[in-house]
């Protein structure tokens, strides 16, 4: 299976090969830069990340509870015209996701019309009965989305996943850019790279815009974290600092008369918007898990009274489901009356008898994923799996087919990457970050490019050994 190369197209990876317009300047830079200088810069980048503490926790690894996400110093480059098409598709996708969520917690017209099977909604573990018939502030459920994209040819991007619960990774997008600008100022001078540094301002503006209408004053925004032992705690503290808002844990907040307050040295301060990085189950022990010490007792009462906005809204996880993902083209057509701009990866729903039969017969050719899985866990990459792994998944599929979907093994595009042997192509994806407030949709140009550092690997997740790259969108 031949993969599209971001630098060379479908040609071979040689100096004489055609180079796509976006990469002409980068090709010259790579030719003129000695390998030992690239290695030095990579070491400097790693030292920078260690100094600022940009790590993530790895659960279940006793010998190393935290580690760096490897950073590749060769950027991924997109032309403005390429990005504009992606951006239109992202806006459409997130608008459809919000419309879908308003519907499944409201009139449920998509169920009555047969667009989405009722059982996929009602049996979904992230569908919250507590939210049925309860409108959210300004009708916005997904304030922040991380939409994973993969590229297969010159003009085709597919959506791989919709991350709308508590999407992460934006801190790496911002820090990757800062490191590149420090290490390679001359390379930036030679390119007109669209900025991503505006993201914190855009995020704060989005948060302020969705404050309850009754606020009637400058709204107070806080970022709610599970605490320092969470795998994404660095990002939580980083974003709170960039936004200029308080980083709080559940014990820092309390509810009185359906209003949320923050404890401060000057006394209680009313909170209007909570950018929460805590899953639904742990938000309020009076409504969800009674054993949770991470949330705020009474928070849901304040939320239902319309006195506080939770971003993202409670119950968005139903749209994060990989089985629901397979219906997104129909969802876009139903709610927006438009054809999808960004395609879905063809998907077999193993809950369907014919699809299950096909998947079992072609298991060695397919990628199989858990419907509610994330982080690259619980998945099978058929062409790279052992016979033992194939047998294990065959049993899983027969035992609980509803828990799985399957997709063809896509030839994810590759990008030049600096590895131990030098510069070589490695498979990549892209996670742009989409913000939705009352003043519209905001998307900074680019996003987080994740790279599978192992030769031939298609798994880009940091938890599975993947790394990241800076993503450049050229203004001209």
UniProtKB/TrEMBL annotation:
InterPro entries per record: ATP-dep_Glu-Cys_Ligase-2 (IPR051680), CP_ATPgrasp_2 (IPR025841), UCP005522 (IPR016450)
Circularly permuted ATP-grasp type domain ranges (all copies): 75-452
Signal peptide start-end: none
SUPFAM superfamilies per record: Glutathione synthetase ATP-binding domain-like
Family annotation (Pfam families): CP_ATPgrasp_2
Name this polypeptide is given: Putative circularly permuted ATP-grasp superfamily protein
Species for this entry: Chelatococcus asaccharovorans
């Amino acid at each position: 299976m031949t993969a599209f190369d971001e630098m060379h197209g479908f040609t071979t990876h040689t100096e004489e090969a055609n180079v796509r317009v976006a990469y002409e300047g980068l090709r010259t830079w790579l030719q003129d830069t000695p390998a030992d200088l690239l290695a030095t810069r990579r070491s400097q980048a790693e030292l920078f990340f260690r100094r600022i503490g940009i790590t993530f926790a790895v659960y279940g690894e006793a010998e190393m509870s935290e580690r760096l996400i490897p950073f590749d110093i060769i950027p991924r480059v997109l032309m403005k015209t390429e990005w504009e098409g992606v951006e239109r598709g992202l806006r459409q996708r997130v608008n459809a996701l919000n419309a879908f969520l308003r519907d499944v917690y409201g009139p449920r017209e998509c169920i009555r019309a047969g667009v989405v099977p009722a059982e996929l909604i009602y049996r979904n573990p992230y569908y919250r009965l507590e939210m049925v018939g309860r409108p959210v502030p300004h009708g916005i459920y997904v304030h922040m989305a991380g939409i994973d994209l993969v590229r297969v040819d010159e003009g085709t991007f597919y959506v791989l996943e919709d991350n709308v619960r508590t999407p992460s990774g934006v801190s790496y997008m911002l820090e990757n850019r800062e490191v590149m600008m420090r290490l390679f100022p001359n390379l930036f001078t030679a390119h007109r790279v669209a900025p991503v540094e505006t993201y914190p301002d855009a995020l704060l503006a989005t948060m302020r815009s969705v404050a309850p209408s009754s606020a009637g004053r400058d709204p107070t925004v806080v970022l709610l974290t599970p605490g320092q032992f969470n795998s994404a705690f660095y990002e939580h503290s980083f974003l709170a600092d960039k936004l200029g808002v308080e980083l709080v844990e559940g014990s820092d907040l309390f509810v009185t008369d359906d209003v949320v307050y923050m404890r401060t040295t000057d006394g209680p301060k009313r909170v209007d918007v909570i950018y929460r990085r805590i899953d639904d189950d742990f938000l309020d022990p009076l409504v969800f898990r009674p054993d949770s010490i991470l949330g705020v007792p009474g928070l849901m009462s304040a939320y239902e009274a319309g006195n506080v906005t939770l971003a993202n809204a409670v119950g968005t996880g139903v749209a994060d489901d990989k089985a629901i993902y397979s219906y997104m083209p129909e969802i876009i057509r139903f709610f927006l009356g438009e054809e999808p701009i960004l395609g879905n990866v063809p998907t077999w729903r193993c809950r369907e008898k014919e699809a299950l039969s096909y998947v079992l017969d072609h298991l060695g050719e397919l990628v199989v994923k858990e419907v509610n899985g994330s982080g690259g866990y619980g998945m099978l990459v058929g062409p790279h799996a052992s016979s033992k792994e194939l047998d294990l998944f065959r049993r899983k599929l027969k035992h609980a087919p509803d828990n799985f979907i399957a997709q063809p093994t896509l030839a994810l595009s590759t990008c030049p990457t600096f590895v131990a042997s030098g510069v070589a192509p490695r498979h990549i994806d892209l996670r742009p970050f989409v913000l939705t407030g009352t003043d519209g949709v905001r998307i900074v140009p680019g996003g987080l490019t994740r790279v599978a550092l192992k030769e031939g690997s298609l798994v880009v997740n940091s938890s599975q050994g993947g790394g990241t790259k800076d993503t450049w969108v050229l203004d001209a």
